[in-house]
Amino acid sequence: MAAPPQPKKIVAPTVSQINAEFVTQLACKYWAPHIKKKSPFDIKVIEEIYEKEIVKSRFAIRKIMLLEFSQYLENYLWMNYSPDVSSKAYLMSICCMVNEKFRENVPAWETFKKKPDHFPFFFKCILKAALAETDGEFSLHEQTVLLLFLDHCFNSLEVDLIRSQVQQLISLPMWLGLQSARLELELKKTPKLRKFWNLIKKNDEKMDPEAREQAYQERRFLSQLIQKFISVLKSIPLSEPVTMDKVHYCERFIELIIDLEALLPTRRWFNTILDDSHLLVHCYLSNLVHREEDGHLFSQLLDMLKFYTGFEINDQTGNALTENEMTTIHYDRITSLQRAAFAHFPELYDFALSNVAEVDTRESLVKYFGPLSSSTLHQVASYLCLLPTLPKNEDTTFDKEFLLELLVSRHERRISQIQQLNQMPLYPTEKIIWDENIVPTEYYSGEGCLALPKLNLQFLTLHDYLLRNFNLFRLESTYEIRQDIEDSVSRMKPWQSEYGGVVFGGWARMAQPIVAFTVVEVAKPNIGENWPTRVRADVTINLNVRDHIKDEWEGLRKHDVCFLITVRPTKPYGTKFDRRRPFIEQVGLVYVRGCEIQGMLDDKGRVIEDGPEPRPNLRGESRTFRVFMDPNQYQQDMTNTIQNGAEDVYETFNIIMRRKPKENNFKAVLETIRNLMNTDCVVPAWLHDIILGYGDPSSAHYSKMPNQIATLDFNDTFLSIEHLKTSFPGHNVKVTVDDPALQIPPFRITFPVRSGKGKKRKDLDGDDEDTEEAKTLIVEPHVIPNRGPYPYNQPKRNTIQFTHTQIEAIRAGMQPGLTMVVGPPGTGKTDVAVQIISNIYHNFPEQRTLIVTHSNQALNQLFEKIMALDIDERHLLRLGHGEEELETEKDFSRYGRVNYVLARRIELLEEVKRLQKSLGVPGDASYTCETAGYFFLYQVMSRWEEYISKVKNKGTMSPNVSEVSKFFPFHEYFANAPQPIFKGRSYEEDMEIAEGCFRHIKKIFTQLEEFRASELLRSGLDRSKYLLVKEAKIIAMTCTHAALKRHDLVKLGFKYDNILMEEAAQILEIETFIPLLLQNPQDGFSRLKRWIMIGDHHQLPPVIKNMAFQKYSNMEQSLFTRFVRVGVPTVDLDAQGRARASLCNLYNWRYKKLGNLPHVQLLPEFSTANAGLLYDFQLINVEDFQGVGESEPNPYFYQNLGEAEYAVALFMYLCLLGYPADKISILTTYNGQKHLIRDIINRRCGSNPLIGRPNKVTTVDRFQGQQNDYILLSLVRTRAVGHLRDVRRLVVAMSRARLGLYIFARVSLFQNCFELTPAFSQLTARPLHLHIIPTEPFPTSRKNGERPAHEIQVIKNMPQMANFVYSMYMHLIQTTHHYHQTLLQLPPAMVEEGEEFPSQETELETEEEGTPAQADVPGLTDISCTQEALASQTETSPSQAGAGSSPEAVSAVPELTTAVEGGT
Questions:
Q1: pLDDT per residue over 420-464, tens digit each?
Q2: In angstroms, how far apart are the furthest CA atoms of the chain?
Q3: DSSP secondary structure letter of residue 821
């Protein structure tokens, strides 16, 4: 198996290269945005650029990147486009720019939307060019570019401008391209279509000849394109050299056809055209398929196309076809062939009279049809309307091979998609793991096409939806597995020993050599299957390793996935491994197979079960694990061994590799998706079409739901009646009580509910008398019944004054249907979520709500806020492993809840005992929940009923207040409540108090009744299952946990009615979908009533490690983002309360209308300035430091020393002014820079009490969802903008700071970037050098924006800042006498406790530690350690200086000292 060649990484051009480029010079003359006087438009410029820059470089990405980045499309090409100037170079330039925008994943159609007039003409020119002769004006390479452009158009049907043009190519009239007999056949099948077809014909007759000709051209476009492709395909020879242009053209063409087939709107009529062109048959018989190297990707794409052409869907209705319907279609085809054979071809009698099962395999069809002549085969095909009729006495022009393949492939029996899926192994093998077309390396540039499914806006059926996600999820995990295998195996250094065996020269934490491997069980297959039900094997390894690693191996749990690997190295002992060369050849890797741990075996050979019992201590170092192999894979391997004489894979394994548990859940997720596809997965009817991307996107909004609820109790949502009125602007609020004293929350609101159907008729009649009624809300304040005399009986209340959009989100969340809330940074998403949960809990006490989030951290934030509201904690449950991090002393995990119930039961029974004693009842009522129940019924209830009969209104007599207290039977029990219990002011008040006391007692017994189950269920597991299925009302888990545990939850009979998802825009599409199906349908319907998604699609999407899946397959698109793109209505929260208004302006342009909450202007922390700094935000330009800007020690591991040192210097400056270090975080856009900054922090600030460490040093992506007061941000790049060009990353970066944001970057690079202009135009409006006020201590009373009383200093560059901080620090130390004393006496412990001090040759600690490096310098006893002494200590070579730091991040300590020296 040859390893694929390593793809080249595209190197982005540097700023100096950009400036030197011919393109840039032209840009500065004609279209650059920052140039004021531009030259007039000149068509020759476009011609020249196209010929010189694009064609001459063979469409080099670097050149196109430069052009696109310089805003060539926006500011020159499209702005000046008109039919008069349209030319080949003009068309091609626009196509190249649009394709580049798609490759870079930036919005492509915005420019066209702004100026749409000439787009139809432009599009028609493209169609014409795509059909031009390849040897004519347009070369094949250029036509491949056009194909790619067309593909982007077909995939952008949500853009109105594009859709209006594309629709003409793919609607019913395109059937003009069918041959007449086939057209008749199709119209006969669906009579309704004939009516439409006749209408089309009528309309055509009315057109003038020219327009008709134009329309016919468009309708036939795709048919002609297919014919053109077939001619290119046929021109490829079998073995002679072929130009890669032809191969790329063919690949891109098949990609286009797959995309057309995989979308219902394009597939509906096109599928018939495709079938009629017999494209697949031509392709499978072509020479390209048989060319090993060049045709590999083409064959894979062809298999995908074959899959989609035969997809189980009715093209016209869009309904999924069942297994039975597919079989019927197959039988119809065969029987119509048999009828034709019987009537017209006597030589096929045998075939015509056989039963279907006997003749529908490929072998038997070839046996019957093979002997016939070509002309006879042509006649058979024409009877079936597959080919035009053959005129009499003429021979066919088609090859016999083609005709035979046409009949056979059409009539052979197909294995159903679900069967194929069930027979597929879930673990990847070496064939897939290292196949570049399926799992590309991380250097995927976006140039070529790949054999991968794409996630766009729409899907054919739920099966198609799940299948695409299944394949992508499988491949994304395969990519991670590949990285793990390459890492572990190369660490083990497998070499060939002298005797030809394997010897391992290294070791790996995650992999061990296998001592013995035996298959111990192959169980019989289930009926109807041909693979074993299970295959188990024993793997023995020798754990002669450190204890903590041994514990990790012994800690492998049930269901953990491991990989068994066979290596046969050919390299001799001692060969060095080169990471740049292909991996497989170097280590001699032959096989990879996955397995799942069942458990470790004890000394008697039995599996040690996971459980509460301690694990037995095993002697020696040899350990054996029992593992489950994949039965499908085992069956395939064995068949291969028996039929083809291949070697037995299972006798060759010599390495076992484990993976980190966190990243190792792929098999469970894949199994979950496969189970979903095998069950009749029922999505609620109101969601089905929206999930597939069809129909009215607003159909699931509460206003259109048939079961909308008129009256809702908003509980504690509103703080006052004024708050309620401001929350519904434009509505008329009627309160049921007039007394203002009674108009206090909680409120019940009755909304006017209008059914969607009646509305249209009203509009038609012009009736608007009910608009007033439609705007009226009836508000009814109600009093929460008294819950008892104790202070803790008072309900907890919400204290947040929600804005009117937040109220709309809460209202929508309480109504049935789909609610999407877009929550920009700092707009209170979590508060809204918690209030919705609380309101649903109180309005619908019998319903259960499932909370799903992306991270444990978000779940913890939600839980902490839920506990502050009036929700009984016995109804809360948290599943998964994150509950350890909850910052409360309460445990909400399953076992934590079981313990809570048991403890609560004992507490309540104690209360029952006290009550029994107070009533003087003998016996032991508090023995169990059951006895307590009887006690309540016979002793408590009887006393209460007797009491009520005494004090209730007796008709004529007015009730006596004193009697309420006098006859009350539970005085003694409530003796420990605040006294007096009864106020004696009025009868009603005292009666309410008495009833409150009884409610308190009654609640004790209802809870005990609920806890009775835990007396009957004895084991913790049973009790926890009972809690999950019966008791808990609010169940929370992460999306990963839901995917892993779906099978168990469904089996338990888990049920829920509502789902709330937080961080929905960060969850993978499939992980968002699985939580909808964690329960079995009831009577064929889903119970789900509400689905609330809260997220922000303008922030970062889910993390996909492999660029190809992220960009090419669009796997990073969350379901939330897709819904927004499809047009599902959203509630956009529009007031932020996190950051200063000026900071909010840096990102609020990205949102519809994002304003500020009043407190952002009013609170003193927002109105005072940042001490010591002139501005609250600044972009600080950082030039090259010692001639270096960004550097890249490893691929994609970007660092920028100048920015890192500058950021740390500013951090130290702030700390020296008195800022708390934990209020400052340092962020960066790359991992490499993060490591470098951490490294510098460790050296400069280490454990220095004067400075401290920042709260976090991390990447922007990791910091999403968190915030801090002051953010220092390093943008790292100086050559190309890199991934900050993704506006979502910019939004996250700009929105993390509350009070101050200081950005270090190369301004000349970022200010030219079109997508980032709105933010960078504000940043560059302020000075680009840091302005500081060193004499202003923290905190200051200066208002933000005021001129300071102190002197302002301008810092020009990083060395100046480093110098300044150094002298400031020394000054601080010398003025602090206390420090002076400590330093003179310098206890030895100070040196030992700090970080290890390397010798004076390698490191300079002086300026950070506050202790000159005198511990290392003999004879240096005085503090007067001058900068000269410093300099003399540190005149070392950079190579020595870097010795103490991490290998990736060579710190700049020596350079800094030279800077310090130079500055003095």
A1: 888 889 999 999 999 888 888 767 777 788 889 999 889 999 999
A2: 119
A3: E
